[in-house]
Amino acid sequence: MPDLDPEEFRRLGHQLVDWVADYRAGVADLPVRSEVAPGWVRSQLPAELPEEPRPLDALLAEVDRVVVPGTTHWQHPSFFGYFPANASLTSLLGDMLSTGLGVQGMLWSTSPACTEVEQVLLDGLAGALGLGPEFTFAGGGGGSIQDSASSSALVALLAALHRSSKTRASGEGWRETGVDGTERIYVTAETHSSLAKAVRVAGLGARALRIVDPSPGSLAMSPAALAAALAADAAAGLRPILVCPTVGTTGTGAIDPVRAVAEVAREHGVWVHVDAAWAGVAALCPEFRDLLDGVELVDSFCTNAHKWLLTAFDASLLWVRDATALPGALSITPEYLRNAATDSGDVVDYRDWQVSLGRRFRALKLWTVVHSYGLAGLRAHVREHVALAAAFADRVREDPGFALAVEPSLALVCLRVVTGGGDAADDAASRRVLEHINASGAALLTHTVVDGRYVIRVAIGSMATTKEHVDALWAQLVATAAQVRAEVAAAG
Ligand SMILES: *Cc1c(COP(=O)(O)O)cnc(C)c1O
After folding, report:
1. Which of 111, 205, 221, 439 could form a disulfide with 256 if both were Cys (CB 3.0 to 4.6 A apart)?
2. Per-residue pLDDT of the chain (492 residues; tens, 9 = 90+)
3. Ligand 1 pocket check for 152: Cβ under 6 Å
4. How far is the C-alpha of 96 from the C-alpha of 185, rounded, in Å?
5. Is 250 in the pocket of ligand 1 (CB under 6 A)?
């Protein structure tokens, strides 16, 4: 089947680039949240697939008519929900290069550049983040680009299971016998659900997941509670496998003390995986590097370039201090994948670092971002949002109608509405305010629950967000809270 001829591709490509440019130029004027009802998008599309070819124009018309209204605009400057999903146009250019080459980089030999560009980038970023030489290929470790922090946690867990099984007296390892129900994984109540999912995917069962208490008055993992849990489990004949401290939890941005956790975990030979999916990239800035204090003691570290680092989904960065750990757990070589380069032992085959065999040339997308912004540009991006969040948190502090639920963490501010009517009234008012704002389409916020209390999250980090948008959000919060208080007063 002949593909587009190059001239036709050029014409259609320009048309598509124009579409994206127009979309981004106008995205601020769209309602942030899609308001369509469930099933609306499906109802708008013909159930019959086209039997004959149709022109691209017709598809773009359908995208305008159906897809755009059915889209929540993550690149909108007033998107403050979840965490950001920066999809810079720069990274889109890198994505085009990647798909343009059309490489499948499962093995070094299936495209050496796909592997080695990734190695160079991840070595460089390890240095830029302050991870230390032990996480570089020259230092015996190394990094890889995974599709998601969830996958990063899963493969770290599999490597931890493998390492733990190697020390067992029977000589029969995890790879031969699987799991036996004695494995234990340590997290906090704030840990991302992807860890619980990794435990489930690995077949460990829910009992394997131990929730470690936080230190008093905080949401961060207590090293003393961890030490007690590890000791009790070991004494009971259970096998501590992995501890996951989080740097920047999803709910509130809580930061587990990596150094103290790693020191405790080391005494039991437990794998430490740091989940810094959102916040880790802030360590590019020297002033935020203490977030990662103690990272030189851990076994694996993950941060997502596809959240706050300007790189369109997907690009989750995972470093391990032992480059043999993931291949040890995951490598299986059927005859059709054997090749001289692999046999020589001189190359990295990234298929052995991940669940799937095939992989995209994601490094080109990340490289385009790092190249085009420079590390200085990436730092400026992070700093701008942290400063906007600090100023926003000051306004929350100064207004008696609001309270910070926890201290701000980098660019995440968690707050609640204060009514004077007690906790339940504050929770109800906070929920109403969030619902009103989201329904208005002017901004998008998400929530969490901390200690049973409803909390509004304001995650600053969309690329287009400026002071103007944060000011507008504050004005809308103040006005909406006043309206909700008036409704409550009228009803009561
Ligand atoms: C977003 C997030 C994740 C999950 O990221 P994916 O790349 O979507 O799997 C994991 N952990 C934390 C702390 C997160 O914020």
Report:
1. 221
2. 889 999 999 999 999 999 999 999 999 999 999 999 999 999 999 999 999 999 999 999 999 999 999 999 999 999 999 999 999 999 999 999 999 999 999 999 999 999 999 999 999 999 999 999 999 999 999 999 999 999 999 999 999 999 998 766 666 678 888 899 999 999 999 999 999 999 999 999 999 999 999 999 999 999 999 999 999 999 999 999 999 999 999 999 999 999 999 999 999 999 999 999 999 999 999 999 999 999 999 999 999 999 999 999 999 999 999 999 999 999 998 898 999 999 999 999 999 999 999 999 999 999 999 999 999 999 999 999 999 999 999 999 999 999 999 999 999 999 999 999 999 999 999 999 999 999 999 999 999 999 999 999 999 999 999 999 999 999 999 999 999 999 888 876
3. no
4. 40
5. yes
* Domains, the chain, with CATH or none: 103-360 (3.40.640.10), 371-491 (3.90.1150.170)
Pocket test for ligand 1, best of 74, 86, 145, 150 (most atoms within 8 A of CB): 150
Query: What own/partner pairs with CB < 8 Å and gap ≥ 24 does 17-24 have?
Result: 19/60, 19/63, 20/89, 20/92, 21/89, 23/68, 24/75, 24/89
The burial class, CB within 10 Å (0-12 / 13-18 / 19+), for 191 is buried
Ligand 1 pocket, residue 275 CB under 6 Å:
yes
The CA 319 to ligand 1 mean position distance, Å, reads 16
Angstrom distance (rounded) from CA 126 to CA 140: 13
Helix axes 89-101, 6-26, angle to 10 degrees: 160
The answer to whether the CB of 320 falls within 8 A of the CB of 119 is: no
Structure tokens given for 185: 């994984």
Query: Residue 139 gets which letter from DSSP?
Result: T
